[in-house]
Amino acid sequence: MSGSTKAMTYVTCAALVLITAYTVALGSSGWLWFGWIVLGIATIGMAAADSADTAAPRGPRAGGTGPGPSAR
Questions:
Q1: Sign (positive/negative) of CA torsion 50, 54, 59, 63?
Q2: Which of 2, 43, 56, 70 has a 20 to 30 Å separation from 28 between CA atoms?
């Protein structure tokens, strides 16, 4: 997981704690929960994109070692 994905995960968890504390202290706010859900979906998307990027094969394509001789 890249540094930006970890930071986004920490921010999402911190937002969950803060929104829960706000809800307990002052009452529920639908917009806060909606915002947290959007933030959570964005975090999941970042994690999925990050894991797909690290799972991609590197190096030459299968079946070849590079460009072949040019045809004349």
A1: negative
A2: 43
